[in-house]
Specification:
CATH architecture: 3-Layer(aba) Sandwich
CATH superfamily: NAD(P)-binding Rossmann-like Domain
Radius of gyration: 17 Å
Number of strands: 7
Strand content: 5-15%
Helix content: 40-55%
Strand order of the largest sheet: 3-2-1-4-5-6-7
Low-confidence stretches: none
Distance between the termini: 16 Å
CATH class: Alpha Beta
Mean pLDDT: 97
Bound molecules: NADP nicotinamide-adenine-dinucleotide phosphate
């Protein structure tokens, strides 16, 4: 029998991410919410970024109620944010923590699922702005802080439709292809450096985005965000040092 893949077999504990400062985008709901809580449970100081402050506050309260390291909250909407906002974010993180050990680029929108010819220009722009351009601008601002860390990890979120195109997945699918490309470019630019870049494909996971994409599906048949966390913690932990340019599946077929 073959050995299980290291990211699937990874067993985290309360010190797996000790002393690490990790930014999570889309930390108010779904997979990002669970990742923020799991990172805090593994000892990290988590920066919770998202567009709905009340959701971020609920995650903050959850983390504090477990007696974990106090997180910080950054309310920010990727749709309207410009490079100036991301530079401001970098300045704030720099003043507060002096470095960044990891970033989980998780926030995304699905947009409309429709035939290619029916993709509206405004919807295409919105999906590309949130899923792609925001990540470019954020990383340009934050890379200097990620280089300040002894070893740091940038984790992008992809999808199976970011590897093989699928009918009617239009702008979302194209945005995930772009995400895979961005990860590969950065990994290649940082070969043999202390900073690593990888993608995670969560696979079908019980969240609001999945329910929107598959309204008729029985959500109880799907993995929960907490069940796919080993890969998320593995890529942030020092165990994955040296792993870069990979696109890992939480639920390989
Ligand atoms: N669930 C799946 O089956 C699945 C499969 C493959 C890939 N993925 C990927 O996994 C990641 C997480 O998805 P999910 O299923 O957890 O989705 P979700 O439940 O819809 O959560 C997405 C998060 O992103 C935030 N967000 C959306 N637009 C934003 C914006 N303009 N600015 C800041 N934050 C924004 C949302 O904030 P609000 O809560 O305030 O709206 C929410 O917290 C995404 O990248 C998705 O493409 C998911």
């Amino acid at each position: 029998m073959s050995e299980p893949l290291p990211h699937l077999a990874f067993e985290s504990h309360e010190h797996s991410l000790k002393n690490k400062v990790i930014l999570v985008t889309g930390a108010g709901d779904g997979i990002g919410k669970q990742a923020a809580i799991s990172y805090a449970q593994c000892g990290a100081t988590v920066i919770l970024l998202g567009r709905t402050t009340s959701k971020l506050e609920a995650v903050y309260d959850h983390i504090v109620s477990e007696g974990l390291t106090q997180p910080s909250i950054v309310p920010l909407d990727h749709e309207g944010a410009t490079s100036t906002h991301y530079k401001g974010l970098a300045d704030t993180i720099g003043e507060e923590y002096g470095r960044l050990d990891g970033i989980l680029l998780n926030a995304s929108v699905l947009g409309a699922l429709c035939p290619f010819e029916e993709i509206k220009e405004s919807e295409f722009d919105q999906v590309m702005q949130i899923n792609v351009k925001a990540q470019v601008l954020m990383l340009q601002a934050l890379l200097p802080l990620l280089r300040e860390a002894q070893t740091s990890s940038v984790v992008f979120t992809t999808s199976s439709v970011g590897r093989v195109g699928r009918a009617f997945w239009g702008a979302y699918s194209m945005s995930k292809f772009a995400t895979e490309g961005m990860m590969q470019i950065l990994a290649d630019e940082h070969k043999n450096k202390a900073i690593r870049f990888n993608c995670i494909n969560p696979g079908a996971t019980r969240t609001q985005m999945r329910a929107k994409a598959y309204p008729g599906e029985d959500a109880n048949t799907l993995k929960t965000p907490s069940q796919i966390m080993p890969t998320y913690v593995y890529l942030m932990s020092d165990v994955s040092r040296g792993v870069s340019g990979e696109s890992l599946d939480c639920q390989p077929k």
